[in-house]
Specification:
- By secondary structure, the chain is mainly alpha-helical.
- It is built from 7 helices and 3 strands.
- Strands 1-2-3 form a 3-stranded parallel sheet, with helices on both faces.
- The longest helix has 19 residues.
- It is globular, with a radius of gyration of 17 Å.
- The model has no long low-confidence stretch (mean pLDDT 90).
């Protein structure tokens, strides 16, 4: 629903591409072509985003697993997933200048790459299927012992 507004806001900007829906197998190449994973969630426009346990920001996990630094609003759910200044940059929700400032701060390739490596390491360590299954196995084992 926000696509028309986004297209209008990006009119005339260079290097902004709206791909539309892409097949699943095209996503790795698409993400590999990116420098930053931006997730400008707008909790004001989408009330469920204000409920921390209600949603899972899949795009953040995809960006991090792809080795991209993340730029996202500092919502409680997102701040728990992305260490600001380490794996990406968080800005105040509803602050377009904060978003722009975060993007400008990542113009430095070395900074982007360092944050992208940290994001990838966190995704593998904490958010991968292996990590999830290990936590699940530990929970099951602890219940069996109880």
């Amino acid at each position: 629903p926000g696509l028309p507004r986004a297209r209008e806001a990006a009119a005339g900007l260079r290097r902004v591409t709206f791909t539309g829906a892409l097949p699943h197998d095209a996503m790795p190449a698409c993400l590999a072509a990116a420098d930053i994973g931006v997730a400008p969630f707008d909790a004001g426009a989408h009330a469920p985003l204000q409920i921390d346990f209600f949603w899972s920001p899949l795009k953040l996990f995809e960006y991090m697993a792809s080795g991209l630094p993340v730029v996202a609003p500092r919502l409680p759910r997102l701040a728990a997933l992305v260490a600001g200044g380490v794996e990406g940059l968080l800005y105040e929700p509803g602050d377009p200048e904060g978003l722009a400032s975060a993007l400008r701060a990542l113009l430095d390739p070395a900074r982007r790459q360092a944050m992208g490596r940290a994001a990838r390491a966190r995704a593998v360590r904490d958010f991968s299927w292996r990590a999830h299954c290990e936590r699940l196995a530990e929970a099951i084992a602890s219940r069996r012992q109880a």
